[in-house]
Structures are given as C-alpha cells and as structure tokens.
Amino acid sequence: MQYRSLGQTGIKVSPYCLGAMMFGGIGNPDHDECVRMIHRALDAGINFIDTADRYSAGESEEIVGKALKGRRERIVLATKVHGPMGDDPNMQGNSRRWITRAVEDSLRRLQTDHIDLYQVHRPAPDTDVEETLSVLTDLLREGKVRAIGASTFPASDIVEAQGVAERRSLARFRTEQPPYSILNRSIEREVLPVCLRYGMGVMAWSPLAKGMLTGRYRKGERTPDTVRARYFAKALADEGSLGAVEQLIPLAENAGMSLMHMALAFVVAHPALTCAIIGPRTMEQLEGLLDGAGVVLTDDLLDRIDEIVPPGVDVAPLGASAYSPPAILQASLRRRPLAERGAA
Fold first, then answer.
1. Is the pTM of this model over 0.85?
2. 329: CB partners within 8 A, 6+ apart
C-alpha cells in the first residue's frame, strides 16, 4: 500500500478504507467471520476502518472493537454520528445533547478511549452548525476524538461550516465522505473543488455504485438474489445505469481488468480523493476487492470513461441513501401560499 495524507490532518491512510456497514445483522451476522475479514484487510496493508453507530444498531462497532483488540494503535479508526439509535426523537441528529451521549456509546462499543476520525453522518437543517462544531471542538480538547469530518454534505453546507469554524474559533471539518463512482460524478462540480480549497481529505462511499460496477447486474438479465438487491432493487434495475455498465464492461476487458477493479481505480485516481471505501460482506468479496489494489488507469482509459459517463454527471440514482435538503423534500418550501400566487 502507498499511504496517502488524510487532508491536512497529518494522518496517513491506505487508498482503500475498509467500510464496516455490512458487518452485523444488516449484512453478515457471523461475528467471527467479520473479525477474520478485518484481520485479513489489516494484513493486506489497509490501516483505515470506517463504521457508524447506526450500522446494524451498533453491532458493526461492536464487531470492529472485537477485531482491533491488540491492534488498535496501528489503525486509523473512523465512525459516525447522526442516524436514529432508538425511538426517542432526541437519540439522533447533530445536537450537543445527542453527540455527547453518542460518542460515549461508540467508544464503549469500539472498546477504545479515542476515535481517530469522528464524522457527522448527514446534515441536520434543524440544528445550528455552530452547535455541532462546538461540541465536536470540546471532544477534540478532551482527547476523545482526534479529527472531525462530515459525510454527504452539499458544497454550500461545507462552506458554511468552514466559515462558522473560522469566525467562532472552533475546530473545522477536516474530511468529507461523499458518494462517488463512475456512475455518480456530480460531486466533481462543486463538492470536490470545495474540499480541495479547504484541504479536506475525501473518502468515497459506494465506489461501486451499490454494486452496479461489480459486473453482476446486467441489462436484460435477471437480477441476482443478493443482499444488496434486496436493499437497492430499484437502483440495480435502473436502465440508465445498466446501459452505462454495458459500455464499461468491454472497456475494462480490453484493458485487461475487471469492471470492479477499473471502478475502484477510477475513484482513487482523482486528485481530490484520499481513498475509496470498500464494503465487503464475505471473505470472498474482500479477496476480490484486494486483488485490484495495484490497478492504475491510463489517461486514455480515463478519457474513454469520460465519454461514457461525462464528468459531473450522475447516471445512477442514489435515492434515500443520499442527502436531499428540505427544499427538495418539502413541497411547501417550493410553493408560495395559494393566496399569494394571484390569478393563473
């Protein structure tokens, strides 16, 4: 592994980050196998692990904690806060009240006294970002976290958070974790340039576009009965995505590589990207992903990919897994009251 700088934190991480979303009830409930997978990834040179409190309701963090016993100091450990962790409406979000409790819960599950990168999983429009940065700054001073970041923030929210941090003398987000793949390139327009401007490290989630870029899902063929297919059935049947995949497969084959390895190499080739987050569910999947660690794409091949999926364009639907601001989700924010509209 050729390690890279995680933004301007001074932390060095591998170009593949092991994502732990599939460890636990949502994906693989066999704790022993998941621990073996984590150890295999570490033995292969991966030193970066990313999880979240809400993955399998904390089970993923528990598995990671078990796996890192005796190996913690050599690992850059990242987790996230925001998603609901119970029925109580205050057991979620980006408030000081919740983050103060959530970090303690994560530390306990991970069996560690500090988190290397603590990330806000999604924006919370109902919470002042100063409130969030304030509590994260306190956690940094207490030594419970070593760096802070965001995930799936629009460019405008990233800029706002950086400005608030500067004006209020608070810690600032050092990383961003957005969706990015050959089929999802919209962050190239604003998010990645903004991250470069502020020296932020970027960790791409879903570099295989929910599995579309594994080559298992083909146009005109029956969708395989997989865990991902059960969660992302609509996305994996999207005609636009399948059409692009049919053009990408022969491109990869002619270059002497699999579509999956080409897709991962595409992500880490971008100068703004620190790493791609791989999220295997089984040891077989992990081995297949690790086999592509040394793949490098030529400029000519990158140009050909651009012809199939132009820069800055999303071909694959992200759906509910992405972040949509209230102005998109709530019709009332897009329409004047009827009394103010005048005659049609």
1. yes
2. none
